[in-house]
Amino acid sequence: MLAASAGFLALLPGAPDTGVACVGRTIVVGYYDTPDQVMVANILAVFIDERTGTTVRLSRFGSRDEAFEAIRRDRISLFSDYSGIVLSRFGGEAPGPDPEKNFSRVKELLNRKYNVLWLEPFGYDRVFSPEAGGAPKEGATGLDPGTAGLMLCKDSLSRFPALPRLLGKLRGILDNGTMEELLREAARSDPRAVARKFLKSRKLI
């Protein structure tokens, strides 16, 4: 009965997800220094901290390549990027016209080759202009970036087995319009405060 009650409480907004929290352990969220990466990292940090009480630390990298190398080597736990870009850059495959197939291919490739799981998509699927506070010219290659999703290191999964279920609650919350609005707010305010306000507005914390 106690286990069932704990499982129910974990699903309530603002309640700790008891299967994730672990004393003395830290979840590290990686990002490279662009406004959209900063925004997503802060959303993840606030969400996990509020829902579980687990310590979350942000780790900044100079580039996408550095962040990807860190997650595959278990130096960070989570990192967000676009399915099409990941497939092309780290999988050596040109994305096809079907976004769902690209997503499935990235999931399979990361799992098999890089010790990384590809989790649920956030919802946004375009690179934001610098004027909107979005991604840099690096992403504007003419390649369809695909849908933004979240990577989880398998070693972190062994330490936090309930994390994918928790993060599944963020599926689809950031469509293109929402992300653009959040980036405008974050350009004038603290990104962590913007993240907290957004999550509260969606009753996720």
Describe this structure in words.
This protein has 205 residues and is α/β, with parallel strands linked by helices. The chain has helices at 2-9, 35-52, 64-72, 83-91, 99-113, 154-159, 163-167, 176-188, 191-201; strands spanning 26-32, 55-61, 78-82, 116-121, 148-153. Strands 2-1-3-5-4 form a 5-stranded mixed β-sheet, with helices on both faces. Helix 8 (176-188) packs across helix 9 (191-201). The protein is globular.
Write the layout of secondary structure elements.
Elements: H1 2-9, E1 26-32, H2 35-52, E2 55-61, H3 64-72, E3 78-82, H4 83-91, H5 99-113, E4 116-121, E5 148-153, H6 154-159, H7 163-167, H8 176-188, H9 191-201
Helix pairs in contact: 2-9, 4-5, 8-9
Q: Would you report the number of β strands? A: 5
Strand content: 15-25%
Q: List segments where confidence is low: pLDDT < 50 over at least 5 consecutive residues.
A: 1-16, 131-141
Distance between the terminal alpha carbons, to the nearest Å? 25 Å
Rg value? 16 Å
Enumerate how many helices there are, as a single number: 9
Spatial ordering of strands, largest sheet:
2-1-3-5-4
Helical proportion? 40-55%
Form type: globular
Going by helix content, strand content and strand pairing, the class is alpha/beta
